[in-house]
């Protein structure tokens, strides 16, 4: 499979590591990034080829992967004038691994199909560490036969690869993942506030509850960081809000009330209003501290 030529668009926190892993697995990788300095780094550090546009990447590739920011960004790099579809040959496979709207994904797949390009949506979970270590969870939507062709490529980047259903289903499952992340985050900060107000030791509370039925990834990973005052991003408030916007938009379309998710989104809006857009999502603790008039994170 390593003879397939891969194009990779978007060398951000995630894309940089994912494309490097593909190159190191022996694939021929051509990259494009909006900010050219990141392409130069990929060329110098691990031997990526570079291109002048997504269109040019597609012209050199059998499989094109996009890992950019939000829905409009994917639309631009895929369907824009200089986008992937302007340069792709029939038979090319396009894999979008960004987290975007399932509805927009289906629209893009329709445009791709008109050019003879098969599209998969393959958003990921596992963060920057998962991207670096090639251990992402990858949620795939699209035709199973197409996934079969590119599975070895996905296996370089992830350790759990699940076909979730037709095109858009990967993004739908990713939206479920973000609902869970948001509500577990809220559970973590409320438990910390309750423990603090009641005067029990926060570390002991985390130690024991994280092993029981109330445990969560948020509690095990963010809880200890919050009580040390570490609010640096793993995953930024900006990105979590993008993802919750996608969730709530889809929920509105389906006429599904999601009370908990909407509450988390509004509380994170307060983090943003206080200048925390680029902080980690665990900075939700700041809002909890204000609401409860208590201090949990050490103040510098
Ligand atoms: P990031 O570090 O902000 O990088 C975003 C990348 O997209 C950059 O290469 C940026 O180019 C490019 N980009 C953005 N808008 C563009 C546009 N309009 N045209 C062309 N390129 C554009 O983001 P990231 O953390 O790698 O995340 C990428 C995707 O993965 C997002 O959809 C995110 O939600 C998802 N994700 C992230 C994580 C995580 O932990 N970070 C986890 C799971 C999923 P420039 O270099 O020019 O800015």
Automatic annotation (TrEMBL):
Where in the numbering of this chain does the 3-hydroxyisobutyrate dehydrogenase-like NAD-binding domain appear?
Answer: 168-287
Spell out the InterPro entries in the cross-references.
3-OH-isobutyrate_DH-rel_CS, 6-PGluconate_DH-like_C_sf, 6PGD_dom2, 6PGDH_NADP-bd, HIBADH-like_NADP-bd, HIBADH-related, NAD(P)-bd_dom_sf
Recorded GO MF terms: oxidoreductase activity
Q: What is its EC number?
A: 1.1.-.-
For the 6-phosphogluconate dehydrogenase NADP-binding domain, which residue ranges apply?
Answer: 5-165
Listed Gene3D superfamilies: N-(1-d-carboxylethyl)-l-norvaline Dehydrogenase, domain 2, NAD(P)-binding Rossmann-like Domain
Protein origin, superkingdom: Bacteria
Q: Which SUPFAM superfamilies match?
A: 6-phosphogluconate dehydrogenase C-terminal domain-like, NAD(P)-binding Rossmann-fold domains
Report keywords, A-Z. Answer: NAD, Oxidoreductase
Which segments cross the bilayer?
none
Q: Describe the family membership recorded for this protein in Swiss-Prot or TrEMBL.
A: Belongs to the HIBADH-related family.
What name appears for this protein in its UniProt entry? Answer: NAD(P)-dependent oxidoreductase
Q: Which organism is it from?
A: Laceyella putida
């Amino acid at each position: 499979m390593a003879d397939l030529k891969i194009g990779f668009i978007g060398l951000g926190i995630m894309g940089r590591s994912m494309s490097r892993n593909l190159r190191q697995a022996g694939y021929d990788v051509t990259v494009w990034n909006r900010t050219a300095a990141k392409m130069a780094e990929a060329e110098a550090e691990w031997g990526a080829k570079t291109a002048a546009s997504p269109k040019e990447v597609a012209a050199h590739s059998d499989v094109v992967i996009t890992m950019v920011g939000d829905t409009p960004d994917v639309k631009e790099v895929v369907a824009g004038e200089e986008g992937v579809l302007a340069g792709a040959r029939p038979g090319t496979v396009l894999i979008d691994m960004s987290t975007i709207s399932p509805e927009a994904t289906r629209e893009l797949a329709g445009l791709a199909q008109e050019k003879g390009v098969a599209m998969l949506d393959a958003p990921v979970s596992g963060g920057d560490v998962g991207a670096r270590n090639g251990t992402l969870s990858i949620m795939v939507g699209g035709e199973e036969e197409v996934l079969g062709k590119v599975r070895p490529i996905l296996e370089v980047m992830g350790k759990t690869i699940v076909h979730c259903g037709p095109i858009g289903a990967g993004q739908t499952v990713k939206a479920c993942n973000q609902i869970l992340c948001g509500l577990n985050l809220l559970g973590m900060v409320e438990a910390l506030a309750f423990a603090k107000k009641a005067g029990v030791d926060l570390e002991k509370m985390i130690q024991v509850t994280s092993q029981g039925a109330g445990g969560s990834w948020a509690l095990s990973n963010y809880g200890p960081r919050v009580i040390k005052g570490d609010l640096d991003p793993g995953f930024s408030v900006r990105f979590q809000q993008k993802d919750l916007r996608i969730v709530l938009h889809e929920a509105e379309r389906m006429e599904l009330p999601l009370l908990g998710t909407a509450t988390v989104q509004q509380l994170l809006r307060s983090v943003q209003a206080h200048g925390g857009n680029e902080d980690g999502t665990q900075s939700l603790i700041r809002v909890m501290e204000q609401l409860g008039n208590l201090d949990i994170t050490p103040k510098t």
